[in-house]
Amino acid sequence: MKLLTEYFGELKTGEEVIKFTLVNKNNIKISFLNYGGIIQEIIVPDRSGKYENIVLGFDNIRDYEEKSPYFGAIVGRIAGRISKAKFQIDGDEYILASNNGMNHIHGGIKGFDKVIWCVKEIKKTDYLGLEMSYISPDGEEGFPGKMNVKVTYILNNNNELEMKFSAVSDKKTIINMTNHSYFNLSGNLNDDILNHKLTINAAKVGFVDEETIPTGELVDVENSVFDFTKGKKIGLDIDKKAEQLIKCGGYDHPFVLDKRQAFSARVEDEKSGRIMDVITDQPVVVFYSGNQLGEDLILSENIRAKKRIGLCLETQDYPDSINQESFPKKIYNPGERYTACTKIKFYTDL
Ligand code: G6D
Question: Which pTM does this prediction carry?
Answer without folding.
Answer: 0.98
